[in-house]
Amino acid sequence: MRKPILTATFVLASLALAGVAETAAAQSGRFEITPMVGYRWGGTASSGGNTYIDEVSVKDNMSFGLTFEYQVHQNAAIEFLWSHQSTSLEASYLGNRPGGAVDIDTDLSIDTIQIGGLWQSGRNGDKVRGYFDLLIGASILSPDSPYDSLTRFSATIGGGAKFYFNDRIGARLGVRWMPVYINSSDSGYIYCDPYWGCYNYYNNNYLYQTDASAGLIIKF
Predict the structure, then answer these.
(1) What single DSSP character describes residue 50?
(2) Structural domain boundaries, residue 211
(3) Triad 127, 129, 133: Cα angle to 5°
């Protein structure tokens, strides 16, 4: 009696282990982490309504960060992005800077934290796969003292290609367009109609940046 029970127990345990192994195998390779380095072209934050500043620009400089992906389908993944740029702000004046005006040129750090979706071509196991991603989140703009930091809504639209050397290691090349909302200012223009009343239009200020990067894919 004991032998059939032991045999049945062994068979059930084997089936359970096989199920665990199959689940682990199915999950294996769904995660990708990609440290990356790149170069980011600055952008301009408008200063509508100011009497002596034409524009405030962000200088081009290096960037670095990482992405983390979880594959939910062979062609789709959830993607998390953290990106950092150390740069500076520079003001362009309308004529000479007025006497007594504060010089706003200063160092600036930009940290971007976003989450979204990534679509990629081909199938798992392909050596080369194109991709497109769309992310939303926040950018933290931190100028040097005495200026305060700003946390603003931002988005990313990107694309590029992944090159896999084997099942675990690859390279990623891509370009991102990264708009950041800065603020809204009164344009001084008012429109009125007899039905809906009057509207005060606003100038929306955005920082538009473009980032080209390369990264090392680690798949697990």
Answers:
(1) -
(2) 30-219
(3) 150
